[in-house]
Design brief:
Strand content: 5-15%
Strand order of the largest sheet: 6-5-4-3-1-2-13
Largest sheet: 7 strands, mixed
Helix content: 40-55%
Number of strands: 13
Shape: elongated
Distance between the termini: 28 Å
Radius of gyration: 23 Å
Length: 418
């Protein structure tokens, strides 16, 4: 092939096969795609699986994301045959595309089998895993096994680079958590305005209640959370105000459950009001999850609880970490008290929450510990999506040029270029 031919074919769009398995992955994938679709980048043909955010950046999803966005062993077992069909369908499409790079995003039960199938058929195509599985928490042997089908891990948490190195996992780069991009915005939310709109009593401490965003979480936590708040109400002179940011998908469940509480609660919706509530709150009562990191970055004291299904509960002995709370792991300190499964009783949670509602040693210790979180997630001023895009583009460019120099590919199926 002549140099002129190489130059011409090098300008052909790159092909990226990208797969997300749930809605948080869709948001993360969309940011990566937007970065790579931006000025200074070559055209890209995107194909794979994603939701509305990724489709907005040029992906034509092979099937609706909702079909595979399930969590927990029991939920997965109920839909296993359909999920397996979709895994095989996605893997076949990835092989047919002959991409320059494959990017899988989180949801390892769904995305990793796809990566394994593609690697068997296309062993030279690089595969990048955006969001490390929790190999540092349980089943650490997975890290070494991932090397068979993952070339590079893009980590959201600052300790994951070292974890993969120690466990013999794939090459790993800390790109940063998406929340690190929003620190200034988080601290600019106006809690006073929200308090006025909700007509909150300024003499009462405010408890923000966060029972989760999934049906299973809300179903298991709303009753014990309501009983916890009733105990707190009795323990605090003058009582408390409660605010609950409700995700639209589970709002009907929350409304029905809150109607049985002995404590009145004000429901709010939307990111602006949620983070304003964090800034306004004296303390929070929260389900374990990403929201604990959000609370930590906002500097909000909290008590954290979680309940899982019977099968998952039996797997707790496999955990290898001192905490299941994301904020605690990032702070490298158990700042937030956590109550899991049988310990998540109203009496336990109320006993931990009441001291946070006044100027106590417990409250001051939490606030001091939370300050470390923003420092630990920092990425030197660079956006996580930009760092991730740089890694993906390097692999895509290298593979693309190798393919061009051997034999230019003919147009493959599907996808949009941007």
């Amino acid at each position: 092939m002549t140099e002129r031919s190489i130059s011409r074919h090098a300008r052909e769009p790159k092909r990226i096969f990208i797969v997300a398995g749930e809605h948080s992955g869709d948001a993360l994938g969309a940011k990566l795609m937007a970065e790579m679709n931006g000025p200074g980048h070559s055209l890209i043909i995107w194909q794979g699986v994603g939701g509305e955010h990724m489709e907005g950046e040029g992906l034509r999803s092979l099937f609706p994301l909702a079909e595979v966005a399930v969590m927990g062993p029991i939920a997965i077992l109920k839909r296993l045959p359909k999920i397996i069909r979709r895994i095989n369908e996605a893997a076949a499409a990835g092989v047919a595309m002959r991409p320059d790079v494959v990017v899988i995003i989180d949801s390892p039960e769904f995305t990793h089998p796809i990566a394994q199938r593609i690697r068997r058929r296309l062993p030279d195509v690089p595969i990048i895993d955006y969001v490390s599985p929790s190999v540092w928490a349980w089943r650490p042997g997975r890290a070494k096994k991932m090397r068979r089908y993952v070339d590079h891990v893009l980590a959201l948490l600052p300790f994951e680079e070292e974890a993969h190195a120690q466990l013999g996992g794939p090459k790993c780069t800390y790109v940063g958590h998406p929340l690190s991009e929003r620190l200034e915005w988080i601290h600019s939310r106006d809690g006073d305005d929200l308090a006025r709109r909700l007509a909150l009593d300024p003499a009462k401490p405010v408890v923000v209640v966060l029972p989760g965003s999934r049906v299973s979480e809300v179903t298991r936590l709303m009753e014990p959370f309501g009983k916890t708040l009733a105990l707190v109400q009795q323990s605090v002179p003058g009582g408390i105000e409660t605010v609950l940011p409700a995700v639209p998908s589970v709002r009907p469940l929350i409304v029905a459950a809150a109607a049985r509480w002995d404590v009145p609660v004000r429901l709010i919706e939307g990111e602006d009001d949620k983070f304003a509530a964090f800034r306004l709150a004296t303390a929070a009562l929260a389900a374990s999850g990403t929201v604990t990191l959000e609370l930590g970055l906002a500097g909000t004291p909290a008590v954290v609880a979680y309940k899982v299904d019977a099968i998952a509960a039996q797997l707790r002995f496999l955990l290898k970490v001192p905490s299941i709370v994301l904020a605690n792991l990032v702070a490298d300190e158990n700042v937030y008290p956590e109550f899991i499964q049988e310990t998540a009783t109203p009496a336990n949670m109320a006993a931990a929450l009441v001291p946070l509602l006044s100027d106590t040693d417990a409250r001051r210790r939490q606030i001091a510990g939370l300050r470390k979180i923003a420092t630990n997630v920092a990425t030197g001023g660079r956006r996580p999506s930009a760092i991730a895009a740089e890694v993906v583009n390097d692999y895509a460019e290298s593979r693309h040029m190798a393919e061009v120099r051997s034999e230019p590919r003919k147009s493959g199926p599907g996808g949009h270029s941007r």
